[in-house]
Design a protein that fits this description.
The chain has 226 residues and is α+β, with helices and mostly antiparallel strands. It has a domain of 146 residues. The chain has six helices and seven strands. It has a seven-stranded antiparallel beta sheet. It is globular and about 75 Å long.
Length: 226
């Protein structure tokens, strides 16, 4: 159901996922979060060069982008759509509850039945190497300032209420995603262009934050100075 806004009310964009064809960038599907989560947790693990303590020559070097993980919990509720089942787009919800949107999310981490059958047929026909199925490029969008390629690493669904046919009508979805970098994709991949753009925007935003004065930390000069 399309949201209704009173005149003058600012339209708040919703976060979500965009699935792209990795070859030509065609948009295959857009999945918006029904409600923006109240919190998002980001964890960054620096990729240092020195593998062992005491490797003094490499202590300050970074061998690549940090491994960054994003975690969020989204709420899904079919109540509004069920109140007006004849509205455009609400017929599937009236018939199946939240199963269509949950199935869409399930397919982010599962190959299609057709792909599985094709792999089995290739194996039966004596193929020496079965190439794993390439999934669409998943892009996490959280405002125009943060558009990043990701891989889902964990997906948990808690179904909390059901209709008379046992279709879920209220659920919580927990998503864990790792941002894909040039180390994961290589510089020629379409997703790497998205990551480089994200990194450049992060540098631009960092440049907007002014450096504080040393005296704010109780120092009269550079650390380590005489």
């Amino acid at each position: 159901m399309s949201a209704q806004f009173a005149p003058g009310t600012p339209v708040v964009p919703r976060g979500g996922l965009v699935l792209l064809d990795p070859a030509d960038g065609t948009v295959l599907r857009v999945i918006t979060l029904q409600y923006n989560p109240d919190t998002i947790t980001r964890t960054l693990q620096p990729q240092g060069v020195g593998a062992e303590p005491g490797d003094r020559s490499e202590a300050l070097r970074l061998r690549g982008p940090a491994h960054e993980t994003i975690r969020l919990e989204a709420e899904l509720d079919a109540t509004t759509q069920l109140e007006d089942p004849l509205a455009p787009g609400n017929d599937a919800v009236a018939a199946y509850g939240l199963l269509p949107v949950l199935a869409t999310l399930d397919l982010l981490v599962n190959p299609t039945a057709g792909a599985l059958i094709a792999q089995d047929e290739a194996a039966r026909n004596g193929a020496f190497e079965i190439v794993p199925v390439e999934s669409p490029l998943t892009v996490f969008v959280w405002s125009r300032e943060r558009v990043v390629p990701v891989r889902l690493t964990e997906f948990t669904v808690t179904e909390e209420a059901f209709d008379s046919n046992l279709n879920p009508i209220r659920a919580k979805v927990s998503l864990s995603m790792r941002i894909l970098t040039v180390d994961d994709l290589g510089f020629t991949h379409r997703g790497s262009g998205l990551f480089i753009g994200h990194q450049r925007r992060r540098e631009q935003l960092a440049a907007l934050h002014p450096s504080d004065q040393l005296r704010a930390l109780g120092l009269d000069g550079p650390p380590g100075g005489t």
